[in-house]
Write a structure and sequence with these properties.
The chain is α+β, with helices and mostly antiparallel strands and 817 residues long. α9 packs across α11 and α14 runs parallel beside α15. The structure holds alpha-L-arabinofuranose.
Length: 817
């Protein structure tokens, strides 16, 4: 039934386009605008046209010319009863209801029904008072049946622009649907070739030496339960039903904790807390000694034989008090290690000890055995491995951090992503809440539906950058929350009240002080020094905003922040944002706005199908030089099944070759998201999957690693001697040649997305004809999710290095002088 309907729509679409282009062109035509109500009103605005108001042709048909941007992704983005209004200057407004409950209307503005500017949302009464709306009419349409909407008489050219846009969208969608998995059929009979790759050493081009970075966001349990090495879950008793939007009855302040023991009781209390920012604590009453308060960790606690674990808590004895034995125990309760702690003080006091694990266990738990009868308050109960990345206290899981280090990232973006701008104003990430003693940090809910302890806060982030030899690139909200926020009511991107902007801007200036200032002169730099880092962190970049809608609310606040930073912190490069897609209203307005302000860099985001990456290997060739540059801050090739496998990875590799070629205008890139804990993913694909004991890099990870480990700072043009008529073959063979000035090495990257092997003779510049050659080859089945590069040596014969690129492969050839 659905296939028949689809077929009907496709045939009709073709007929509409053909007939519209073939017909004698009337000077004027009628446009009928309507929405069908299908898909819970999420399909947006459709059009039909007619020369005589008798015979109607649906455009597309059911092509969505504009959709609502209002509200969250799940239940919102609805457009009800759209009305098209013509304006005196020849442009148009579309006004629409956003849902049945709120007295809010959206306004979408367009010069031609194809290009749109970002939408505005205002109280319905105000919107209705702005327009004089004629009666709606009903029209019988060939496919959609009877629909109600507006009719406008327009010039033929208006219709033509719309028809061309629909045709272009159809071409794009066919390109996007292209899959390497279908190529064996598409290139049936294709023979292997021997190709020469010529390198033009006379046309060197300086490129960015910051190209490959990483995007860290606390999504998929990337921080708590992931990179942040704390083993106790809900150590501060601050979990809250709101973390999961009140959808999980078990998720509350007592989550992950249990108390056993005769007559033993516990509850979460707030009276006389450890710190106002951390109001909850566990209040435990025991009639007899021997009660056990236990934590399950994040999917259990993994410990290793012989390793040391710092165990600690803050305790306040309310009645009685005494010793507490902290034990790591296995699934059966058998002891793996123990240490003594104290809970005697009448005021909050920290007690700490070290447990040595006698054996390895992947599913242990922490038990605190109370050696007394009475009542005690406990908070910030922690079990932290001493074995962290670079041995940092309160540091990172070493195996995961090493996987990040192996990417050789030049920068680390943090804290997101959507976590940066948050779910409503209250949830915007505030850096000041994430530094200082752990018990004084302000935990928050996580927009991805869990909890942020903020134990991995700004200090730990800057320390991580230092340990990875990478530049910090913090992303600060542009004083507007995520455009998909559920929290906060109408106006979704309401923005901080203007009277709070001075304080907000001061916070950003304070961040620069904290990171770069002199502790003798600056309060914030002293806080950094007191935390253990007297030397400046040397912060150079700050991103303002994360793929926000480029609304007036956004622009007003962004400009205030930008101008203040330029004036007060001129050493900082400010990165702007141009919306969540590679095209469309926010992309266009974002770029216009960035150029008007003269921004140095803007952050682009796009998650597209592999076909898009194959067919857009000239995307940045077309970008103007000499102005605002690009930080491609989030991207990934998304297959329909959202796996990270060789097929997606090869399209990313080919695209990155084109990015390297354009690294005079693309300054930085970061694949997103980075980390995902198995069983806790909100987003796929990711770069590295992990459990408590495993690190599972994806095929895409190795593409990133090969680019990061083989980055250069000078680009040399290269070309295959292909028949120029073979455009589809050319799109499946990519190359990039760079020089790394620090080592003097020449690096050749080759991608073969064809279903057959190809031999490539790389004609090396003369000074490399006696060098040592190392090849790294990533290949396999297109669906492989665990392909890894294999490294080998190669020879140079008569000035050329000849290699065979297997079908579906990515090779990096590194040649020393
Ligand atoms: O990378 C996952 C999410 O994708 C980011 O949080 C957000 O910025 C984007 O929509």
């Amino acid at each position: 039934m659905r296939t028949t309907r689809l077929f009907q729509i496709v045939v009709f679409a073709l007929l509409t386009l053909v007939s519209a282009h073939a017909q004698p062109r009337p000077e004027k035509v009628y446009l009928f605008s309507y929405s069908t109500g299908e898909n819970r009103d999420k399909n947006g605005l459709h059009f039909a046209w007619s020369a005589d108001q008798q015979t109607w042709h649906e455009i597309g048909p059911l092509y969505s010319f504009v959709k609502s941007d209002y509200g969250d992704w799940g239940s919102q983005k609805r457009m009800l009863n759209p009305r098209v209004v013509s304006l005196p200057d020849g442009s148009w407004d579309v006004i629409f209801e956003v849902n049945e409950k709120e007295a809010v209307m959206g306004i979408a503005h367009t010069p031609n029904f194809v290009n749109w500017i970002p939408q505005e949302y205002l109280p319905s009464a105000k919107v209705l008072s702005m327009y004089n709306l004629p009666e709606r009419v009903s029209v019988e349409l060939p496919i959609s049946g009877k629909q109600t909407g507006d009719i406008h008489c327009v010039e033929w050219n208006v219709l033509k622009t719309m028809l061309d846009a629909v045709q272009m969208a159809a071409t794009r969608s066919a390109e996007n649907a292209e899959r390497l998995a279908d190529d064996a059929g598409r290139f049936r009979g294709l023979k292997s070739q021997t190709l020469t790759l010529s390198i033009d050493a006379d046309k060197p081009k300086q490129i960015s030496n910051m190209l490959m970075g990483i995007f860290f966001e606390d999504i998929n349990y990337a921080a708590d339960g992931g990179l942040y090495a704390e083993l106790v879950q809900n150590r501060d008793f601050e979990y809250h039903p709101r973390d999961k939007r009140h959808r999980d009855s078990k998720w509350n302040s007592s989550y992950a904790w249990t108390l056993t023991g005769e007559g033993a009781q516990w509850f979460v209390d707030q009276m006389d807390p450890l710190h106002a920012n951390n109001p909850n604590y566990a209040r435990i009453r025991v009639a007899r000694k021997g009660a056990r308060f236990a934590n399950d960790g994040f999917d259990g606690i993994a410990v290793k034989a012989g390793e040391k674990y710092d165990v600690s808590f803050f305790a306040r004895a309310i009645n009685g008090g005494g010793t507490v034995t902290a034990r790591i125990v296995d699934e059966n309760g058998a002891e793996i290690g123990k240490a003594g702690l104290s809970a005697r003080s009448r005021s909050w006091k920290k007690s700490a000890a070290v447990i040595v694990a006698s054996r390895t266990c992947d599913n242990a738990r922490l038990e605190l055995e109370l050696g007394f009868a009475g009542e005690v308050a406990l908070d910030m109960i922690s079990l932290f491995p001493q074995n962290t990345f670079k041995g940092r206290k309160n540091g990172l899981r070493p195996d995961l951090a090493q996987a990040l280090a192996d990417l050789k990232p030049r920068f680390v973006r943090f804290p997101g992503g959507c976590v940066a701008h948050g779910d409503g104003l209250e949830n915007m990430y505030r850096w000041k809440n994430t530094i200082g003693p752990l018990e004084q940090r302000v935990p928050n809910w996580n927009i991805w539906g869990y909890h942020q302890s903020l134990g991995l806060g700004y200090y730990e982030y800057f320390q991580m950058c230092e340990d990875l030899d990478a530049e910090p690139v913090p992303i600060i909200p542009a004083a507007v929350p995520c455009q998909n926020s559920v929290v906060g009511g109408y106006g979704q991107q309401g923005g901080l009240p203007l009277e709070e902007m001075d304080e907000y801007i001061q916070d950003i200036v304070d961040l620069v002080e904290w990171a770069n200032g002199d502790p003798k002169k600056s309060k914030w730099a002293k806080i950094r020094a007191d935390a253990g880092h007297p030397e400046p962190f040397n912060l150079k970049y700050i991103g303002i905003g994360n793929e926000d809608l480029i609304t007036k609310v956004f622009e007003e606040r962004f400009e205030m922040i930008y101008k203040a930073l330029k004036e007060r912190c001129p050493e900082i490069t400010v990165i702007g944002t141009v919306g969540p897609f590679y095209q469309g209203a926010d992309y266009e307005e974002g770029w216009r706005f960035a150029q008007e302000l003269g921004l140095e860099l803007v952050d682009e985001h796009y998650y597209n199908p592999p076909g898009w990456f194959i067919n857009n290997q000239d995307f940045y060739d077309k970008y103007p030089r000499g102005g605002t540059k690009v930080y491609l801050g989030e991207y990934a090739s998304h297959l329909p099944n959202r796996s990270n496998c060789l097929e997606s990875a090869l399209t990313e590799a080919a695209y990155l070759c084109h990015v390297e070629r354009n690294a005079d205008v693309v300054e930085m890139t970061s694949y997103a998201p980075l980390l995902a804990k198995k069983g806790h993913t909100q987003w796929n694909p990711d770069l590295i999957y992990f459990t408590n004991t495993t690190v599972e890099p994806t095929t895409g990870y190795y593409v990133q690693a090969l680019f990061g480990q083989n980055a250069g700072d000078v680009y040399l043009p290269s070309a295959f001697d292909l028949d120029p008529r073979d455009a589809s073959i050319a799109r499946r063979l990519a190359s990039s040649v760079v020089l790394d000035s620090s080592s003097g090495d020449l690096i050749v990257k080759l991608v073969n997305m064809l279903p057959v092997d190809n031999t490539v003779e790389v004609a090396l510049p003369s000074e490399y004809s006696r060098g040592n050659v190392t090849k790294s080859l990533l290949t396999g089945e297109l669906s492989d999710t665990a392909a890894q590069p294999v490294v080998s040596k190669a020879n140079v014969v008569s000035g050329a290095c000849t290699v065979t690129l297997p079908a579906y492969s990515f090779m990096v050839i590194r040649v020393s002088k």
